[in-house]
Inverse folding.
């Protein structure tokens, strides 16, 4: 049995789960999420916990078993606690600010870059740190990746937008000539 798939998902207080075959709707204090899973996986609510079971032991079913359980756990955590990703700006003159809900990035281009949040996503800015918050883990990660892609960190000076705690492999620059004036 899948090590992840066999673990039940505990449902915290204040979270409601509605299961109709492969369709699951979860409602909590932070919001609502719904998803349709593979009809091969059996999702059941037993003693206040979500349990996922698979029909066979084929490699495809084993993989789907763990994936289904992980997605359900992320949905439950999202509607109860939410998710967030932090990004850091590194570079001279690099800054971010909020105009209403829109994130405006000044990262060395001739123009500011505006990022509109999709529904369910909020931004927060403190000094050189951007926080992306939401209830859908996949969407939070994708929006954070899109913001990072505006100016990915470069390896020579380390300038750019990076995830909080991300280590950038630095490269040495040009070594310069030993003789001084060049020539022959």
């Amino acid at each position: 049995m899948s090590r992840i798939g066999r673990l039940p998902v505990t449902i915290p207080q204040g979270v409601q789960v509605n299961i109709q075959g492969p369709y699951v709707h979860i409602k909590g204090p932070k919001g609502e999420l719904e998803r349709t899973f593979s009809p091969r996986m059996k999702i059941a609510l037993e003693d206040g916990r979500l349990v996922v079971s698979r029909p066979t032991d084929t490699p495809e079913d084993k993989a789907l078993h763990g994936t289904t359980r992980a997605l359900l756990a992320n949905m439950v955590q999202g509607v109860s606690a939410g998710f967030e990703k932090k990004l850091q700006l590194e570079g001279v003159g690099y800054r971010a600010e909020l105009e209403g809900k829109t994130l405006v990035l000044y990262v060395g281009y001739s123009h500011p870059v505006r990022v509109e949040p999709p529904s369910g996503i909020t931004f927060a800015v403190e000094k050189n740190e951007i926080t992306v918050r939401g209830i859908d883990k996949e969407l939070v990660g994708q929006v954070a990746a899109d913001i990072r892609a505006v100016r990915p960190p470069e390896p020579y000076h380390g300038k750019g937008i990076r995830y909080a705690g991300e280590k950038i492999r630095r490269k040495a620059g040009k070594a310069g000539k030993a003789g001084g004036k060049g020539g022959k």
Observations:
- The chain has two helices and 13 strands.
- Helices lie at 59-80, 137-150.
